[in-house]
Amino acid sequence: MSEASGSMLKQATLSARGRGLVASHAIKAGEILLQEPHLLLYLDAAFASLNAVCFHCTRLDPSPKGTGSWTICPVCQTATFCSLDCATSSSSSTHTSFVCKALSLLRLSTLDLDLQTQARYLIAAYNLAVLSPHDFQQLLALEGDGPVDEKANVLHTFLSEVIRHWQVETQRLPSWSLHFVASLLVKDQRNAFGLSTYFSDTHLRQVRAYAIYAQASFFNHDCLPNACRFDYIDRPGVGSTDIIIRALHDIPDGAEICISYFPINWSLTERQKKLRDEYGFICKCERCQVEEGWSDEDIAEQGEEISVERDTSEEGDEDMEATDEEVMDAEEDLQGSFPHAMFFAKYLCPHEGCGGTLAPLPPNQGRAVIMECNVCGQLRSEEEFLREIEEYRVSS
Ligand SMILES: [Zn+2]
Ligand SMILES: [Zn+2]
Ligand SMILES: [Zn+2]
Ligand SMILES: [Zn+2]
Q1: Mean pLDDT of all residues in the chain?
Q2: Residue 56's pLDDT is what?
Q3: I need a labelling partner for 207 at 20 to 30 A (CA). Which of 114, 241, 280, 328 fits?
Q4: How many CB atoms lie within 10 A of CB 50?
Q5: Of the ligands numbered here, which is closest to the C-alpha atom of 74?
Q6: Ligand 1 center–CA 83 separation, angstroms
Q7: For the CA atoms of 283, 28, 372, 347, what is the dihedral angle to 10 degrees?
Q8: Separation of CA 346 and ligand 1 centre (Å)
Q9: Are 269 and 294 in contact, with CB atoms under 8 Å apart?
């Protein structure tokens, strides 16, 4: 075992799941387990094509088109910057002459948007290899390898052309083999976190950028996670693209910390397909084992319970102070219906179409537990939670 990122987590080799992260002491609900800057960041091509997201910091342009202080790089006509600061710092980091040249070629290419997004990843990875070999080694150490498929072929051809163009203009740079590109693509698929924008009017969630974090890549998946990730990409100041992992509930010393790689309300079939196709394993977690034994009727029933309407907006101003006893009674009541009912009641965001996970705000002495959704950002107090359960009890 080795210490990872401060004193909260330790890397460990776990017999069933390979390497993972465990708690290095008892952890309180809501505690921040990890806050980490990205190793690599790249924009989603569809979002980037709107020219309303900063190439360097990924903030969104809040002003209507054509107004405000945003600028676009006159050379590649692709990278947009929110401020002079971002434009200046990017020229020696994220938007070097190599990246600028590569983006110019990408703009003229016939790659579809999905391939363009992955080409942006490879460009950022190549740039990292040139600028910061140490960080690039961290990327190479991440899990994931091969296969060489059609997609890898197309992207390898594109990247080789970019490198060839660049070699003509400047000093010789290393070429990358097809197999090397293919394995980098798998590392991206398995380790990248999407940084999303949530549109509250349409309930749509759109990924605007992807980021890879050296330490956060070690969290294993569980369909009943005990931690979840937050990001605050539109917050002012530095660190807006940091990943923040918070505990959903108290976690004992030595327990493994797991996150869910996708929304927690996905069905068994959806979860197993995603994990098999993109992460290369079959999930054997407690929830998957229980759900594998279910009949079709059970599945339909669970679907209803997860999506049960828990609208609290029509409630009166009834002053309801939640006691521990009341919470426990409510929990026992729900637990009867299906084994993980309480997990969803507590941690699945109640707002329609959101699918986010709720985690307590970081612990603060003397303050009631407030849950925060990691997708829509809405907060829920313990009193509101009890009211939701009460309504559920009456309606079922
Ligand atoms: Zn910016
Ligand atoms: Zn440029
Ligand atoms: Zn599972
Ligand atoms: Zn939400």
Answers
A1: 86
A2: 94
A3: 280
A4: 12
A5: 2
A6: 6
A7: 40
A8: 36
A9: no
Query: Which ligand has the shortest distance to the CA of 275?
Result: 3
| pLDDT confidence of residue 176 | 94
Which-ligand-closest: CA of 222? 3
Ligand nearest to the CA of 79: 2
Amino acid at position 222, single letter: D
Ligand nearest to the CA of 287: 3
Alpha-carbon gap, residue 1 to 40, rounded angstroms: 26
Ligand 3 mean position, distance from CA 260 (Å): 9
Residue 205: nearest ligand to its CA? 4
Cα 390 from Cα 381, distance rounded (Å): 14
154 Cα: distance to centroid of ligand 2 (angstroms): 23
Proximal ligand: closest to the CA of 76: 2
- How many A from CA of 375 to the centre of ligand 4? 5
- For residue range 332-349, what is the model confidence (pLDDT) as tens digits? 555 555 668 889 999 999
**Half-sphere exposure of residue 241, counting CA atoms within 13 Å on the CB side?**
24
Ligand 4 mean position, distance from CA 322 (Å): 22
Residues having C-beta closer than 5 Å to ion ligand 4: 349, 351, 354, 356, 373, 375-376
Which one-letter DSSP state was computed for residue 27? B
Q: Which residues pair with 251 in a beta bridge?
A: 27
Burial label, 22 (beta-carbon count in 10 A; 0-12, 13-18, 19+): middle
Q: How close is the Cα of 222 to the center of ligand 3, in Å? A: 5
Contacts with 55 (C-beta within 8 Å, 6 or more apart), sequence order:
43, 48, 73, 78, 79, 80, 81, 86, 90, 94, 95
**Cα dihedral value 141, 142, 146, 150, nearest 10:** -120
Give the model's pLDDT for residue 272: 96
Cβ neighbours around 316 below 10 Å, total = 5
What is the pLDDT confidence band of residue 167, given thresholds at 50, 70 and 90?
confident
Ligand at minimal distance from the CA of 107 is 2
Confirm if 60 and 234 have CB atoms less than 8 A apart: yes
pLDDT at 323: 56
CB atoms within 10 A of CB 383: 17
Consecutive H or E run containing 275: helix 268-279
* Kind and range of the H or E run holding 298: helix 296-306
Task: Return the percentage of the chain with pLDDT > 70, whole number.
Answer: 85
CA distance 69 to 61: 9
CA–CA gap between residue 220 and residue 87 (Å, rounded) = 36
Report the separation in Å between the CA atom of 119 and the middle of ligand 1, taken as the mean of its atom positions. 21
Lookup result for tokens 């319970």: 305
